[in-house]
Design goal:
The chain contains 1 helix and 4 strands. By secondary structure, it is an alpha+beta fold. The protein has one domain. The protein starts with 5 loop residues before the first strand and ends in a 16-residue tail after the last strand.
């Protein structure tokens, strides 16, 4: 299964990444990650995506403007 990453530039010039897996149905799961996270480090989404795609359900995974905000801090602070 191919997992193509796409990017969108917001009005304030922030580049956000996402992925749409088209199951060719009217049903879709939209995944919004938690604060300061991103969709591609949530490894459980691989298994959920494979299961939903086998049922022909589409999945939209996106980052938001809080993506990776904690990576700006030194590791010793985390």
């Amino acid at each position: 299964m191919s997992f193509p990453i796409v990017e969108v530039k917001t009005k304030n010039q922030t580049i956000l990444h996402g992925m749409l897996l088209d199951g060719h149905s009217k049903s879709i799961l939209i995944f919004v990650h938690g604060t300061a996270s991103n969709f591609y480090e949530n490894y459980f989404m691989k298994f959920i995506s494979e299961s939903l795609m086998s049922k022909k359900i589409s999945i939209l995974l996106t980052n938001n403007s809080g993506s990776e905000v904690l990576k700006a801090y030194p590791p010793s602070v985390l």
